Description:
By secondary structure, this protein is of the alpha+beta class. The chain has two domains: 12-116 and 280-286, Aminopeptidase (3-Layer(aba) Sandwich); 123-248, Gcn5-related N-acetyltransferase (GNAT) (Aminopeptidase, 3-Layer(aba) Sandwich), CATH 3.40.630. Helices cover 30% and strands 32% of the residues. It has eight helices and 14 strands. The chain has helices spanning 16-21, 64-80, 101-106, 132-139, 154-167, 176-185, 231-245, 264-272, and strands at residues 27-31, 35-42, 45-48, 58-59, 85-90, 110-121, 145-149, 190-197, 200-211, 214-222, 250-255, 257-258, 261-262, 276-286. Strands 1, 2, 3, 4, 5, 6, 7, 8, 9, 10, 11 and 14 form a twelve-stranded mixed β-sheet that branches. Strand 9 and strand 10 (214-222) form a beta hairpin. It starts with 15 loop residues before the first helix and ends with a strand. Mean pLDDT is 92; it is low at 1-9.
Amino acid sequence: MSTKLQEPLPCFYFTPEYAQIHKLDSYQKIHSECAQISFFLDGERAVSMPKSPIGGFFIENAQKSDFLDFLNKTENALQHMGVRKLEVVQAPHFYPGAVSPTILELIGFQQRVAEITHYIPLEGKLEDRLHSMEKRKLDKPASFTCQVESEEALLEVHQFISRCRQEQGLEINISYEMLQKMVETFPERYVLFTARKDSQLIAAVVMTIPIEAVAYYFLPATHPDHKSESPMVRLIHHIYQYFQERKFHYIDLGISSINGTPQESLIRFKENMGGIRTERVTLWKQLD
């Protein structure tokens, strides 16, 4: 960590408003001029951050000595709060300002789990990244349209995603009421994308903007009766163009596992869509 990293803009997952909506009553934040970490206190354990896809340490224009000073300050503060163990879900490397898990392991953290995740750099044409099979699907004439929806479609989109998840034997991981609060509180951080056929929803994605230049593929779903038409391929292409036009750098496709078990078909789809495999690492450190 001898070189300086980019300065990150605030991540909305690490705000008091986000914690309040998710009822994380023991939310705390420690920050300095060069680093920050937000966490939730759970007895003798501090977790950064529950109910969020990413957490951990972020730095801005920091040298190694600056970060080590901040880490020492953080550990002292946590010990005064009665915390004996710190656990962090460290953001992947393409998030600006995220501290490398390798650095954390060198200074006493231990890896608990490394989950497969993917991202797409928003450079050039997506077609040049696609597997030939997905490219053929994109080249076929479409019987549906892709668009950005207004907030008025939020209930319809949530109900659609929930039904699609139920068809797979899964549950959507956020209620409509909570999603509505999130969109109302952070309207600039959510974008709804849909594919419609004669006004009927056949695919949808709720995208979030955790931090400047990164868009997160938060809630995707495809109607089971329309999977043969591959609407998600064209919808991701639409999402790619939308964020590329707005000068974003990456799409975070998220982890591909359920309770730590890799979802091979999802991994294959993301990589066919140009996703680059990396890891989201959860680490912990005993403080006494």
